[in-house]
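User: Here's a chain of 99 residues. Predict its fold as tokens.
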Amino acid sequence: MTRPMSLGTSRNARVRCATYTRKSSEEGLEQEFNSLLAQREACEAFIASQRHEGWVCLRTGYDDGGFSGATMGPPTLQRLLADITPGASILWSSIRSTG
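Assistant: Prediction complete.
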């Protein structure tokens, strides 16, 4: 019996993962370690935990501080969507921030 692969990938197939972080207000973003960085660390840790499935975290991060998540309009989200290669698989991971 073979183990099913997540995202329909074959063993050792490379899955490129981007991280997108957002905070609806700018409050606290001036701090050295802020909510966006905490979200990024959590996403990168999850991606690293899936390394055995071929997941790799892209170096480019996408951060929107001070933008509502009620629309698809935040500028960095738009850049992320534009950067997605046609035909690529998309993995969306959401971390709910309380700060």
